[in-house]
Amino acid sequence: MKYIAGSFYISIFLCCLTYFACAQPLNQKNKFTRQDTLRGSINPERAWWDVVSYNIYVAPDYKTETIKGWNQIGFDVTTDGKNKKMQIDLQQPMVIDSIVFNNKQITHFKRDGNIYLIDFGSFNFIAAKTALQKKNPVTLYSLKIYFQGTPRRAVNPPWDGGWIWSKDAKGRPWMTVACQGLGASVWYPCKDHQSDEPDQGALIQIKVPDTLVAVANGRLYSKDDRKDGNILYTWQVKNPINNYNIVPYIGKYVHFSDNYIGETEKNLSLDYWVLDYNLEKAKKQFGRDVIPMLEAFEYWFGPYPFYEDGYKLVESSHLGMEHQSATAYGNHYQNGYLGGDLSGTGWGLKWDYIIIHESGHEWFANNITTNDIADMWVHEGFTMYSEALFVEYHYGKKAADEYVQGIRNNISNDRPLIGYYGVNKEGSGDMYNKGANLLHTIRQVIDDDSVFRKILRGLNQDFYHQTVDSKDVEAYFSRVSGKDMSKIFDQYLRTTKIPVLEYTTQGDKISYRWANCITDFDMPVRIEGTSDWLHPTAEWKSVTMTADIKSKGLVIDKNFYIKVKKIQ
After folding, report:
1. CATH code of 407's domain
2. Which CATH number characterizes residue 514's domain?
3. For 276-285, b where at least 16 C-beta lie within 10 A, e where not — what string?
4. What is the tens place of the pLDDT at every residue in 405-446?
5. Apex CA 144: angle with CA 138 and CA 149, to 5°?
6. Cα distance between residue 307 and residue 457, in whole Å
7. Do 86 and 121 touch, CB atoms closer than 8 A?
8. Measured distance CA(168)–CA(153) in Å, rounded
9. Of the candidates 283, 339, 343, which has an alpha carbon nearest to the alpha carbon of residue 313?
10. Do strands 267-275 and 311-315 pair parallel, antiparallel, or not at all (unpaired)?
11. Using N-to-C axis directions, what is the helix angle for 433-446 and 377-395, rounded to 10°?
């Protein structure tokens, strides 16, 4: 998801973005509907089956702003599978026309708001599977769902999701989708929950007029001229992929490419699809930033997670989104975030924000995906911090420290970073800046950059192509670092309180303690410019003051996201 800028940038546009992040009053955050629960939880109608593959066909009509198509879902059974109903998500006003299972049309399905319930009657999946596997050990079930309608139109993409019907600068059709948070079911029927990705990937088939080009995730599998004024483009994704990442891009695209030999010594294809009149701009901008980004991120996070599907940037009419192996790019070929620097330090103007940030999501959001959107700070906090790691790799540690401290000014502490579970609700928009500063603070506590890098790479290796909970990530930090980080995570993720280090002096003694903290918070901090550490708790502790403290007061390393207050 795209970063929503904070107070550093005084413009009507960015203020509007901040509004979208914080529009819902705090006292309404815990008011959820039955539809929210159906969308956000793993209920009995979802728990018994596992998505294995998607084969999506879509034919958009630009003039009427309608789409029609089908999704053939390959699935397996995880429980007894007897007398089950299946929940399929498809948001209104889209409709399901028909459903085919076992080469027969299903007649028993009904709508309940934004979901459909399919009734399989007395069909016994386990018994049928056992019989079929005697003939074919890899037999899976297949459900083909035909759909059509007028999908919700995105008003302010990518923050307000839906189908995007736009025109390029020459007045030609330009279409795509942005649906993170809102959900892929805004346009195609699926099991719309982050915890269940198609394990064997997806096919995306897009029928468009032969005057346009259709691009999607993965690699171009086929291009079929239908001889009726239309072309069918088929793209194949071999790796697991988030539902919201599966998107079509349709426009007057041209293609150019490059390649990258990374730490695996394998060739990673770099493909770029841009509007025809922006070709030269794209060659310059992408050619400058993409390979340095990959070098930095493979150093910090390990190999790019989707070599089989390639790396791709696709020009979009909206700012950008981390669509796996087909990143949406709409930063207008300029440095910074729409020409601005989120950190206010100048470091953010040396590179294209959307290329760096969205590509960072290939590791955190696409390789490692949270089961519940409530834990989305794992996507956004790590990816925001990837910007600082990119800066550090190319400009040095001091520059990275300044960048992280700069984005700290955009934190509002309006509500916790962890959202509400089971209702498809993320936490505060602070998940970007505060999430990055949490990680930077933890890095200081670990006090060993080789261990910190080991953790980042280990996460991407041990949770490779998996869905996780925040608690899994938190426990991983504690286990690998050998330091209990649980209270630090609880403090910064689950409260809005910023730790306050209170201190007072008397004679040659300085006394200090933590305030504004959860019970048993005991994070150590380093005194600025020294190798000396304090180990505060909620109780007062005293030590003899150094000469520096006597002359300057107690100054803590600015890389810790805390406040310091002298008690008179």
Report:
1. 1.10.390.10
2. 2.60.40
3. eebeeebeeb
4. 999 999 999 999 999 999 999 999 999 999 999 999 999 999
5. 150
6. 17
7. no
8. 17
9. 283
10. parallel
11. 60
